[in-house]
Amino acid sequence: MKKGIAILGATGSIGMQAMELLALDQSYSIELLSCHSNVSTMALLIDRFKPKQVVVTEKKAYDWLYRQKMNSKTQILFGEENILKAIESPEIQSVLNAIVGFSALKPLIQSIKSRKQILLANKESLVMAGELIMNLAAEYKSTILPIDSEHSAIFQCLLGEDNAAIEKVILTASGGPFLNFSSEEMKQVSPAMALNHPIWKMGKKVSVDSASLMNKGLEIIEARWLFNLKLHQLDVVIHPQSAIHSFVQFTDGSLKAQIGAADMRLPIHYALYYPNRKKQTFSTFSPIDYPELTFRQADREKFRNLALAFEALKKEGNAPAILSAANDVAVDAFLEHKWPFYRIPELVEEMLLTQPYFAHPDLETLLETTTKCFAESKAYIKKNKK
Ligand code: NDP
Ligand code: MG
Question: Are residues 338 and 365 in the same domain?
């Protein structure tokens, strides 16, 4: 029998790679797809995959798609509320959440409460509300399989291990396009430069985050919650070749690493077929192609975002939600040429220092924190733009 799947954020970088894998496979039936505004791509996905339902979260885009596809068998719906309703369908067993940013949060919570298996690419939701999400997942016995490559690596290294024997988890970072830039050169960074990642081809937000190393900061927080780790068990190492996707060091001194091509289809494929390892033919890896694997300390002064993420994690409470929300606004402003790249950490730090802190926030407080931080970050940009 086919397994029903929902792909949220189907038109994005991760979503489209998942669709590419699903096109080769008969074991899944596509029940639900979502996108925000890229309805021309969604129209193609409808023609090719004939999903039962599609939800679009931007109104004008929805109106267009509805008119285009009103006579097709796919039901076209509008708005987040309909994503939440559709997820509940008993036909859906797995939900792949590849929405970017904090909009992934409510669908993630709904998937957990509906006891689905979750394939999670989105990281901002775990950064914002990791404790709450993991508690809910335990309560509803919903499995979360990470798609983020570092977390998929850690997950694989931990199979068959006792988590009490973890000494440290070391996330690898390519270092992004500006690894060797001076502080002066950092001042000249344009959106086109930041979007041109040397190894990974990704969506815009995660590309900018990778260039500023905020991505690694967010991933540290993501790992803290996914694997129930303490701050002192988390570290980052720069590894420009991106062959090793992360390490786990155990108390007996042994170190496990997961190695593979820098190809997001691999962790997506792993999550789709877990616990099996299904044969694939799209990506191979030979150590001979990597005669040199190098590692170096991450420079937390030059890449201040990384230091700020560790600080937010140390504070916990709503601090990571503030970090993530301020960064969201800073990245958007940078992409719109309204805020320079090198000042992204300044805005994030300002919000961490000035926004009200709550040690044990509930969901409502986290949502309020995020909304308020979005507004205050925008106001800060307006006031402090040079
Ligand atoms: P993209 O920007 O490429 O795609 C994002 C998807 O989310 C699109 O389908 C987009 O729809 C949809 N979306 C955008 N805004 C909203 C909204 N307000 N409400 C609902 N849906 C929305 O992102 P990526 O695929 O690169 O990343 C997705 C997530 O996965 C991120 O959290 C990222 O950090 C994480 N990730 C990505 C990796 C990668 O290689 N790309 C690697 C590891 C993690 P539309 O196209 O219509 O705008
Ligand atoms: Mg990653």
Answer: yes
CATH of residue 129's domain is: 3.40.50.720
Query: What is the residue whose two structure tokens read 């036909």?
Result: 91
In the structure, what pLDDT confidence band is assigned to residue 86 with cuts at 50, 70 and 90? very high
Helix (H) or strand (E) holding 349: helix 344-354
Q: Is the pTM of this model over 0.70?
A: yes
Classify strands 28-35 and 3-8 as parallel, antiparallel or unpaired.
parallel
- Terminal-residue alpha carbon distance, the chain: 60
User: Is the separation of the CB atoms in 84 and 110 below 8 Å?
Assistant: yes
Ligand 1 contact via 264 beta carbon (within 6 Å):
yes
Please tell me if the CB atom of residue 42 comes closer than 6 angstroms to any atom of ligand 1.
Answer: no
**Candidate from 14, 44, 154 with most ligand 1 atoms within 8 A of CB, to mutate:** 14
pLDDT band for position 270 (cuts 50, 70, 90): very high
pLDDT band, very low/low/confident/very high, at 260 (cuts 50, 70, 90): very high
- Work out the mean pLDDT of the chain and round it to a whole number: 97
- Answer for the pair 237, 295: CB distance below 8 angstroms, yes or no: yes
Q: What angle do CA 93, 96, 97 make, to 5 degrees?
A: 130
pLDDT digits (tens, 9 = 90+) for 87-130: 999 999 999 999 999 999 999 999 999 999 999 999 999 999 99
Same domain, 114 and 245: no
The answer to whether the CB of 57 is under 6 A from ligand 1 is yes
Q: Region 266-285: what's the mean pLDDT?
A: 96
Check pocket membership of 140 for ligand 1, CB cut-off 6 A. Answer: no
Residues in Cβ contact with 232 at an 8 Å cutoff, skipping those fewer than 6 apart:
none
| Count: domains in the chain | 3
Residues, beta carbon < 5 Å, ion ligand 2: 148-150
Residue 200: pLDDT over 80: no
CB of 280 within 8 A of CB of 325? no
Question: Are the beta carbons of 97 and 121 closer than 8 angstroms?
Answer: yes
Mean pLDDT of the 197-209 span: 90
